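Hi! If you just cloned this repository, the fastest way to understand the data is to look at a raw example. We've pasted two of them here, unedited. The first protein comes first, obviously.
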Amino acid sequence: MDGDERIEYDAYRSDLEMLSQTPRSEISSIKLEEAQRNFNGHKTHYDRLRADVAIKLKFLEENKVKVMHKQLLLFHNAVSAYFSGNQTALEATLKQFNIKVRSPNTAPPSWLEQ
């Protein structure tokens, strides 16, 4: 949702409020009806955009939960493989995490090699 949509909605709302406070005449009644139509159209559009954003946020939240669940499962599998001494299962799980396994006897690479 763009900030411009909110600005337009507020502008039409303030126009309607301003015209509703002016003394009644034939010209002001016509302007008030036009302002009411403009406001209603922009309010409908703005409400639709807000509903779309709410749906997108709900999808993002659901996706976040799915990703967290998957990561927790992978972490559990890695910890289980580590403590059971199953090196192949540990390497397979770490490969899913995109982590390279270093054996304990190798020295870390020099800063020049990185």
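Ok, and the second one:
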Amino acid sequence: MTTSRRFADRKVDRFEKNITKRGAVPETTAKKGKDYPVGPILLGFFIFVVIGSSLFQIIRTATTGGMA
């Protein structure tokens, strides 16, 4: 498949522009800040459920006499 000279020249120009920009990329594209993916209320509820269920399991195991 042949390409036109004009199309090839445009590709070369774009490539050369990118070469001159090399190294000028920001260190990270992610936002820096304290933006948590989960809200503090949801996180607190999750911790409450996990710790509460583990305490409930420990109490239930202690009252039934161990692992039987």
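That's it. A detail worth noticing about the second one: The helical segments are 5-20, 40-64.
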